[in-house]
Specification:
This protein has 112 residues and is α+β, with helices and mostly antiparallel strands. It has three helices and four strands, in the order αβββαβα. It has a four-stranded antiparallel sheet with strand order 1-2-3-4, covered by helices on one side. β1 and β2 form a beta hairpin. It is globular, with a radius of gyration of 16 Å. The protein starts with a helix and ends in a 10-residue tail after the last helix.
């Protein structure tokens, strides 16, 4: 509350953008990690990412699709840097996992 009302620094160093199941996003400083998102990956051709997403939905043990962006250099999230900075991607994925474990599961309404 003091951050909003008095302009004091936030006590948090990460912003959880979303987490549900094996999807989500987190921002820490200039870095943003998206896990199993829907944005197009740079360098993939002919629906390769869509194929991996479909396999991911069918096989819960399939590897996650990680997208890492440096928002200071790439505010429109055009260049996935996960392959260039695998340590940073794994660090943020670990933080996302930790926040996901703390989150209260959403109440899902049955489809009519």
């Amino acid at each position: 509350w003091p951050t909003i009302t008095q302009g004091q620094p936030s006590p948090h160093d990460a912003i959880l953008l979303n987490t549900f199941g094996r999807t989500g996003a987190i921002r820490v400083g200039e870095w943003k990690l998206v896990r199993n998102g829907k944005a197009d990956e740079v360098g993939e051709e002919g629906g390769e990412k869509e194929d991996r997403q479909k396999k991911r939905k069918e096989d819960r043990n399939a590897p996650d699709i990680l997208e890492l962006f440096n928002l200071a250099q790439d505010p429109f999230e055009k260049s996935n840097l996960a392959a260039q900075y695998p340590e940073k991607a794994q660090e943020l994925a670990g933080r996302l996992d930790a926040l996901e474990r703390e989150a209260v599961p959403p109440i899902l309404k049955p489809k009519p």
